[in-house]
Amino acid sequence: MGQDRTLSDHAVNPPLAALVLVALAGAIFMLPLLPAIVELRLKRDAQPLNVIQQHAGEIRYFANGFRKVAVELQGPLRDCVALGTTAAGKLPDGDEYLLIGRVDKETWTRGGKPLAICRVVVAAGADAALPDGMTFVKEIYAAGQLIGGNGNTYRAILGEKDVRLQRTSKVTRWAHAVGAFRAEHDCDLYGRVSSDREIDLQSGCVFQRLNAPRISFGDAAADFGQVTSGAPDAVAGPQSSSAPAGRTLYDEDLDIPPGAVIPGSIVTRGKLRIGAGARVLGSAKSDSAMIVDAGACVEGSLISAATMHIGRDCRVGGPVVAERGIVVESGTRCGAIHAQTTVSAPTIEIEEGALVFGTLWARDEGRVVPKA
Fold first, then answer.
1. In sequence order, which ranges of the chain are alpha helices (DSSP H)?
2. In which domain, by residue range, is 179 found?
3. Which pLDDT belongs to residue 220?
4. Which tens digit of pLDDT belongs to each residue from 151-181?
5. Which of 170, 196, 222 is the endpoint of a domain?
6. What angle do CA 167, 161, 135 make, to 5 degrees?
7. Quick one: how many helices (H) and strands (E) in the chain?
8. Whole-angstrom Cα distance, residue 158 to residue 74?
9. What pLDDT is recorded for position 32?
């Protein structure tokens, strides 16, 4: 009987056990939240992130990096130009390079046979015309004008003057021209292509990201090598006659009649059609498809959550963005020489005869097509 009393004295108290179990479960539940609770109290991680701007999407980032390499080669390259010779060596990273003082047919032959693949970094100190059908595995630096051959493939190009690629050429990473950049028909331009002056692409060209003060397609281009005059009547974007009068929201599809003038910005949750010759003094945004008929003018931006089709001879002053795809017809101008803008979508189809001032970014693929 004494033994029974001893066992009873050590028996578990059910209410206390339940309380301990609940407390333990609560502690386990709160443990993952402890860092957040501490941060909410002390606010030690509230400072903004330190973003390194050179990695923030600058289209000329790789070209600027390669320019540092080119600067180191300037002295020997000038010597090659003065003597009309070539020289070879190795860069600090181990890549071999070829310095060319005078470009001739002998430069691109080995044993009397045309060279098909060039596996070294090339630096040309004078104007250079490249043969057809070559693949350049490493970067090319051109101190003078560079004209590529038909069907060539390039990793990357940095040109101090004009760069001109012949038909069916490919750029796999990037290209930058201090002068004008021109690509003939059916070139594939992957990655980043930029110019400090102008870019001109012919029909059949495929692109991803372009940036220049003036980007022209087909017969919209000025004569290659001539500086754009920037005359207001030739390149200026639409100008507002008065300040936009606020924003109007529509819950359904909207058709703006041809020739109408909308004094402010418009937003619609449905489809939007801007009639031929209509003028919107602000911006336009739609949650569905957008169609801009021929001759219309939008002084602000065009934003579509679906697809966008811009007809012939339209004028758009601000950014043009579509979530699915954009079609731009001949004669349309986006932005102005004094007011750069951006045209962006996963896919962009742009006709010869269109003009963009600033940036054209096709996140999947852009294509230049002939006039319909």
1. 2-9, 14-30, 34-42, 61-72, 74-83, 232-235
2. 61-196
3. 57
4. 999 999 999 999 999 999 999 999 999 999 9
5. 196
6. 40
7. 6, 33
8. 14
9. 81
Q: Where do we find the tokens 């990793």? A: 155
> Which of 175, 201, 174 lies closest to 187 in space, CA to CA?
201
Q: Tokens standing for 75?
A: 């002295």
**Torsion, CA 321, CA 327, CA 330, CA 334, rounded to 10:** 0
3-state secondary structure (DSSP) of residue 4: helix
Q: Which of 70, 60, 216 is nearest to 142 (CA)?
A: 70
What residues contact 211, with CB distance under 8 A and at least 6 apart? 59, 60, 192, 193, 194, 195, 358, 359, 360
Residues 192 and 237 in one domain: no
Predicted pLDDT at 235: 35
Tokens, residue 205 = 């060209």
Give me 129's structure tokens. 């015309």
Query: What is residue 229's predicted lDDT score, i.e. its pLDDT?
Result: 35
CB of 247 closer than 8 Å to CB of 264: yes
Assigned domain for 17 exists: no
Q: Please indicate, yes or no, whether residues 268 and 363 belong to a single structural domain of this protein.
A: yes
Quote the pTM value: 0.78
| Residue 130, CB-side half-sphere exposure with 13 Å CA sphere | 34
pLDDT, tens only, 71-102: 999 999 999 999 988 899 999 889 999 999 88
Q: Which amino acid is at 137?
A: V
Which tokens is 147 given?
Answer: 């004209």
Q: Is residue 172 part of a domain?
A: yes
152 in any annotated domain: yes
Same domain (yes/no): 242, 362: yes
Residue 21: inside a domain, yes or no? Answer: no
Rounded to whole angstroms, the Cα distance separating 251 from 267 reads 9
Mean pLDDT value across residues 15-40:
79
β-pairing, 206-217 vs 198-201, is parallel
State which amino acid sits at residue 199. I
Residue entry with tokens 């080995």? 110
The pLDDT confidence band at residue 19, using thresholds 50, 70 and 90, is: confident
The one-letter code for the residue type at 275 is G
